Amino acid sequence: MGRLTGGDPSLLRRINSAVVLHSLRGADSSTLTDLTRITGLSRPTVEGVVEGLIEVGLVVESVPEEGEARRQGRPARRFRFRAEAGHLLGIEIGAHRVAVLMSGLDGRIIGAGSRDVSETASADDRLEKVRTVVADVLRRTGVARSSLRAVGVGSPGIVETDGTVRLSTALPGWTGLPLGDRLRRSFRCPVLVENDANAAAVAEHWKGAATESDDIVFVLAGLSPGAGSLIGGRLHRGYGGAAGEIGALHLLGREVTPEKLLSTTDEPLHPLDEQAVADVFSLAKSGDERARAAVDRFNQRLVHDVAALVLALDPELVVIGGWAAGLDGVLEPLRDELSRYCLRPPRVTLSLLGEAAVATGALRLALDHVEEQLFAVEGTVTARR
Asked: What's the per-residue H, E or C state across the chain?
């Protein structure tokens, strides 16, 4: 790699702009003196950079409070990052609902909405529900669609880098769906599609139970569990985006299906849905022996699936989310059994974000994309006013 000599003035300006903008974004407001001290740049350089950022709409001068002006006479000029210069969406598309979170460029949530959807809904109906919720959130927040800078999406299934769902058994008509392309028709900004467990892992690392850990596994616990993992703080997707598909481990010589695992009779559990499983757990809690046996089988399968991933990745922390995380009796068996199977048992905890994890992670992915542009030095950045 060549040595940076400072011979390209435009490159240096972009570097200085990124440094100053990053400092402003991390504070409510700053003076030129503050920015000079924090960045180590000269005052004339900082002043020139700030004026340029004001011109493109990313920074604005803060109006001093009336009391401050009276106490200090003419106060020093203060500046703040314009989080309202653009907006981001995080979208969860699930089997039973779609949910949307909206933030400004600082990642602070300013709007949210969700709608229930039938698990048998077609792909077209599910996407129409997404468009309805997005339109409602935009209307209630008063944000123009043209202000959106990036949209993140969390969806069940193995997702290609272009947003195509290569395989999904959770949603009808989802396998092979060009989800990214379909959603880009509704937006004039980048749309980033990610597996739902991967998005939830990102969310827990950002705002949830894993903020202090960089090597984590997030388990989206359900009838067919999935997992997302971060290694060194970076999302691990695998070569084809299929890392963490622990729900397929039963294919490795274990053909007992969830319908049989959770059955309290000699017949498979039908219908197999979340309410039916919750009923089995409730019966087990009340002392029903056959239900207890079914719950033990369910927990043991989940433990084996998670243990396989833990043995491969050696995470510091395992976070359990998904609807099954709310069922009594899931967490302690996981802790106990992982201590038996794993060479170095990780800490195990429940998700702090609950059902908001996937949409929150999708929002973080959108924010990551925009931050790469805001703080890049390869090109200039222009904000929408």
From this structure: CCCCCCCCHHHHHHHHHHHHHHHHHCCCCEEHHHHHHHHCCCHHHHHHHHHHHHHCCCEEEECCCHHHHHHHCCCCCEEEECHHHCEEEEEEECCCEEEEEEEECCCCEEEEEEEECCCCCCHHHHHHHHHHHHHHHHHHHCCCHHHEEEEEEEECCEECCCCEEEECCCCCCCCCCEHHHHHHCCCCCCEEEEEHHHHHHHHHHHHCCCCCCCCEEEEECCCCCEEEEEECCEEECCCCCCCCCHHHHHHCCCCCCHHHHCCCCCCCCCCCCHHHHHHHHHHHHCCCHHHHHHHHHHHHHHHHHHHHHHHHHCCCEEEEECHHHHCCCCHHHHHHHHHHHCCCCCEEEECCCHHHHHHHHHHHHHHHHHHHHHCCCCCCCCCCC
Residues constituting the chain:
385
Q: pLDDT band at residue 384, thresholds of 50, 70 and 90?
A: very low
pLDDT tens per residue, range 150-205: 999 999 999 999 999 999 988 999 999 999 999 999 998 999 999 999 999 999 99
218, 197 Cβ separation under 8 angstroms = yes
Please determine, for residue 6, whether its predicted confidence score (pLDDT) is greater than 70.
no
Residue 249: phi and psi, rounded to 5, are: -65, -25
pLDDT confidence of residue 12: 83
3-state secondary structure 261-306: HCCCCCCCCCCCCHHHHHHHHHHHHCCCHHHHHHHHHHHHHHHHHH
Beta bridge partners of 151: 89, 191
